[in-house]
Fold this sequence. Notes:
- This protein is mainly alpha-helical.
- The chain contains nine helices and no strands.
- It has two domains: about 1-70, Homeodomain-like (Arc Repressor Mutant, subunit A); about 75-219, Orthogonal Bundle (Tetracycline Repressor, domain 2), CATH 1.10.357.
Amino acid sequence: MIHKMNSDTDITKRSADVIQRRKEREKNQRRKKILKAAEKVFAKRGFQGATIQEIALEAELSVGTIYNFFSGKDALYSKILTTHLDEMREKVLRHITPIGNVKERLKAMLFFQSEFIEKNRNFFIIFFRDQSRFPWAPAKDLEKEVSLRYERFLETLRDIFEEGIEKGVFKPLPPEDLAEAWGGLCNAFFFKWLTEKSKWPLKSKVMTIYEIFMNGVGK
């Protein structure tokens, strides 16, 4: 009798665990669905033009469900920005860290950035369009978070250039200036590709950017 009671208790517990895991899985799927819909609406309407109602319609969920996950569109906007920036940094570092040659590391960094931007076009339309004018109350907090992530990107570049200078691969110029120049050149190409809705693959410009920076345009 005691054995049967213990078995029944174990079954009940396992059933409860299965139900809980299913609920968590469904919750995560719904959250991802909301973020994907919000990203699409923000890319199309901008922050000011987007509404929770339109995001709910795009996600095929009720407005109340959206508010169960996020306090408002500012929270959605912030989550989209910071999540993608962190994802890009993690992907780039994972691929470039094992590369010993600093020039190849720099080239790989640009390639994987370009690949990530291509795959997440909606997000980067938002990012490049609105990064200098976050238009809501907690703007300073988000701008701080975005600035922190860009500074980490520049820090990675500075480390590469500093190592290259020490090895005699690059001219002995200030590494921070080289990092800013590289970042600015890349961003110009990224911005053009996004704003003009270019059909050509962004990755096709990797060698152009690399050659311009490394060798200039003079014969």
